[in-house]
Design a protein that fits this description.
This protein is 31% helix and 22% strand. By secondary structure, it is an alpha/beta fold. The chain is built from twelve helices and twelve strands. Helix 4 crosses helix 5 and helix 5 packs across helix 7. The strands form two sheets. Strands 6-7-8-3-9-10-12-11 form an eight-stranded mixed sheet, with helices on both faces. It has a four-stranded antiparallel sheet with strand order 2-1-4-5, with helices on one face. The protein is globular, with a radius of gyration of 21 Å. Strand 9 and strand 10 form a beta hairpin.
Length: 340
């Protein structure tokens, strides 16, 4: 029996493969996690670790082919999204699951006004009239902090700054009051000042609306400030998952520890150098039969070459509901990781 509240989203054994001319790429490998109502789950890892592909697989946003879902369940309020018809899935996208992409300029249609793009899901999913949708669009723009909202409905994407375009994307994602908001590195292309504004906006919206959020990023500093739980991905699978405070205080996977050590530290030591993770992420051209991090791991031993480790509980709780890790090595309890 699951511990804690009933999750709004539950993913079990998700597998996604890309068919290419050079063979198959096993991009998502047996990923399982859950998301509770009102919770913010941070998903971290290097580029190529499977973060974005996993989340796009949930609502079949990947082109199929070459992508192919090879198994698993994606339960949104008990409904398996992988078994829905295209019509049922269209009703889910936007209405029950909102998605904010990394680059708003490529996500927004340049030939339509911002107002028309916000109004479209309102009319399609909520059956609003044009006037009702326009009034709601103004409310949404005001909610995400865009001044002169009624006037800006007639503006085109290129007439907004990068930060304002990202606010528009958030407004579109929130239009139908979705159960889950997935944000895929939404602040990466923005300068640090605008990043801070967007993060503060998300905190405020989460408090007002009580929505569940999945926040994809490579920036552990961002996760430390906004997440409840953190899921670390590598090689297309979950290698560690824990409450945010526990993950930073007691990381158990060598990859998580290495990520924390790459965070720049504020110190007076001029000789301090930024640490890097040596090596490259694995090429996932075959099912995983060994630990995907072994070639870069300082704690590697024979078992790492023989078997891909399953997730095990660190704190005795059910997998996914406390602190768990997929690693043969066991971190000494007294060993600490220095990070900012």
């Amino acid at each position: 029996m699951a511990e804690g509240p009933v999750p709004v989203l539950e993913v079990k054994g998700l597998r996604t493969v890309f068919r290419t001319r050079g063979g198959e790429i096993h991009a998502v490998n047996d990923v399982s996690f859950h998301l509770n109502r009102g919770e913010l789950l941070g998903v971290v890892g290097e580029s190529g670790s499977g973060k974005s592909v996993t989340m796009m697989s949930l609502i079949k946003l990947l082109p199929m082919p070459p992508a192919e879902l090879r198994g698993g369940e994606v339960l949104l309020n008990g409904q398996d999204l992988l078994k829905t018809t295209p019509e049922e899935l269209r009703a889910v996208r936007g209405a029950k699951v909102g998605f904010v992409f990394q680059d708003p300029m490529t996500s927004l249609n340049p030939v339509f006004t911002v107002g028309s793009q916000i109004m479209e899901p309102l009319r399609e999913h909520m059956g609003m009239t044009k006037d009702q949708a326009a009034a709601r669009a103004v409310e949404l723009l005001e909610l995400v902090g865009i001044p002169d909202a009624r006037k800006r409905l007639k503006s085109y994407p290129h007439q907004f700054s990068g930060g304002m375009r990202q606010r528009v994307m958030i407004a579109i994602a929130l239009a139908c009051n979705p159960d889950v908001l997935i944000a895929d590195e939404p602040t990466t292309a923005l300068d640090v000042t605008i990043q801070a504004q967007i993060l503060e906006l998300v905190k405020e919206l989460r408090q007002k609306l009580g929505m569940a959020i999945i926040w994809i990023t490579h920036d552990l500093g961002v996760i430390a400030g906004i997440a409840d739980r953190v899921m670390v991905m590598y090689g297309g699978q979950v290698v560690e998952q824990a409450p945010v405070g526990e993950l930073f205080a007691n990381p158990q996977h060598p990859y998580t520890r290495a990520l924390l050590q790459t965070i720049p530290k504020i110190s007076g030591a001029r000789e301090a150098r930024l640490k890097v993770i040596e090596g490259q992420p694995p090429i996932l051209n075959a099912p995983l039969t060994a630990c995907p991090f072994r070639a870069r791991c300082e704690y590697r031993h024979d078992a790492c070459d023989r078997e891909n480790p399953a997730r095990r509980a660190v704190d005795g709780r059910q997998i996914g509901y406390g602190h768990d890790v997929a690693c043969h090595w066991r971190a000494p309890a007294s060993q600490e990781v220095a990070h900012a």
